[in-house]
Amino acid sequence: MATFIMVTRLGPDAARSPQAFEQIEKSTMAVIRRNCPDAHWVGSYAALGPYDYVDIFHADGIDTALRVSALIRACGHAQTEVWPATEWSHFKELMRGMPAQV
Questions:
Q1: pLDDT digits (tens, 9 = 90+) for 10-60
Q2: What is the pTM of this model?
Q3: What is the dihedral angle through the alpha carbons of 39, 41, 45, 51, rounded to the nearest 10 degrees?
């Protein structure tokens, strides 16, 4: 399974009250579970700055990550960015096999 990091910014009309955020989450996650059973959530975080949320999830590939992103945009009236990621330990392992100088 590949790891993806998704940042989301809700549109101005997405939530009309603080309580609406939880309802958006519940309804959107239900749609994702139903349509992307191969996506498995690792964590969700509220964020300060240009994005409202940061989510980390595993998926079987880019096609599933694209579907997750499209569903978030459609259900949550939001903008998303999705970045593929790898664990730091795996990255270090990859770098050990690289030439000392290029």
A1: 888 877 888 888 888 899 999 999 999 999 999 999 999 999 999 999 999
A2: 0.88
A3: -10
- Each residue of 61-92: pLDDT tens digit? 999 999 999 999 888 789 999 999 999 999 99
Confirm if 100 and 49 have CB atoms less than 8 A apart.
Answer: no
Q: Which residue has the tokens 């409202």?
A: 52
Residues 6+ apart with CB under 8 A from 40: 1, 57, 58, 59
Q: How many Å is the Cα radius of gyration of the chain?
A: 16
Quickly list DSSP for 35-89. H-TT-EEEEEEE-SSS-SEEEEEEESSHHHHHHHHHHHHHHHTEEEEEEEE--HH
* pLDDT at residue number 33: 95
| 3-state DSSP assignment of residue 13 | coil
Using an 8 Å Cβ cutoff, are 90 and 23 in contact?
Answer: no
